[in-house]
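[Discussion] Sanity-checking designs against the backbone

I'm trying to build intuition for which residues belong where. Below is a structure token string of 299 positions. I'd appreciate it if someone posts a full sequence so I can compare it with mine line by line.
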């Protein structure tokens, strides 16, 4: 059975009951879960943010900082001495202690190591092939997830520059974000899949990968606004593609119609040429034979 907020709530209650009465711990655990929900987090978002960070950086303090920033004031957020820092710390500790989450993290690490090994072998094989025969044709390499995200990375470069971020810094921020997308298994096709599910789902699914660069964004942009801009960019891209395809279809249809008209005209001309005029009558080739036979009998 997949984990959810219910499991996290029970963990909060168990941890808090060590220092407060059971009923108070239960009420506080419920309020802590509501705090995550109020800040627009699904359980899956928290778990995915944990997995991505621990897979990429293995830095608990960085993850705590990123999650804490979403909660605003790190002081006595929930009352009774429970701060945002305490909420984040307990959430991370839950993920660290949950076997199924650790299994997912281990699987991610294995997958990354395997992919890295495959890429190294592929590069080595290509290098040997290139040196043995420069004339051999090789099949085209399948576009990588990182390469497929070029439209988004190029758009973000322009967006950040437009909002006053120096080009070299914008490049670094965009590269970090795209690296996290790829690490999380997102290429252009998968991004389009979530775009098709609507803006709200798109934002919730991708915000963990964008939010981690929050401190480096221009002051006029936040993670949600950046994803909204990406969503609108993909909208425009789809409209342009549709217009292009529609234009091509119309052009092909027009060419086909012209070809049909040309064929009809040619066939009509051929039919006229085949007809032979005798007096004021038009006689088809089949009738010509009959006519000759009749004339021969008369003679």
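Best answer:
Here's mine. Compare freely.
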């Amino acid at each position: 059975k997949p984990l959810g907020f219910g499991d996290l709530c029970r963990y909060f209650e168990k941890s808090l009951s060590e220092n407060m009465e059971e009923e108070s711990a239960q009420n506080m655990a419920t309020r802590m879960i509501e705090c995550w929900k109020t800040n627009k987090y699904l359980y899956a978002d928290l778990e995915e943010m944990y997995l991505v960070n621990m897979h990429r950086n293995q830095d608990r303090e960085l993850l705590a900082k990123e999650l804490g920033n979403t909660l605003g004031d790190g002081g006595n957020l929930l009352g009774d001495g429970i701060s945002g820092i305490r909420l984040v710390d307990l959430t991370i500790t839950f993920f660290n202690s949950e076997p199924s989450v650790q299994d997912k993290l281990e699987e991610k690490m294995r997958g990354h190591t395997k992919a890295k090994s495959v890429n190294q072998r592929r590069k080595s094989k290509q290098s040997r092939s290139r040196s043995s025969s420069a004339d051999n044709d090789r099949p085209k390499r399948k576009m990588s997830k990182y390469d497929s995200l070029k439209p988004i990375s190029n758009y973000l470069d322009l967006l950040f520059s437009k909002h006053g971020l120096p080009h070299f810094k914008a490049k670094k921020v965009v590269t970090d974000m795209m690296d996290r997308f790829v690490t999380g298994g997102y290429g252009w096709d998968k991004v389009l899949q979530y775009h098709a599910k609507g803006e709200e789902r798109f934002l919730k699914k991708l915000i963990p990968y964008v939010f981690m660069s929050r401190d480096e964004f221009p002051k006029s942009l936040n993670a949600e606004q950046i994803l909204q801009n990406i969503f609108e960019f993909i909208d425009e891209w789809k409209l342009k593609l549709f217009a292009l395809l529609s234009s091509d279809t119309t052009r092909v249809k027009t060419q086909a119609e012209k070809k049909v008209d040309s064929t009809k005209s040619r066939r009509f001309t051929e039919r006229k040429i085949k007809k032979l005029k005798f007096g004021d009558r038009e006689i088809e080739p089949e009738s010509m034979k009959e006519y000759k036979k009749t004339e021969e009998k008369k003679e």
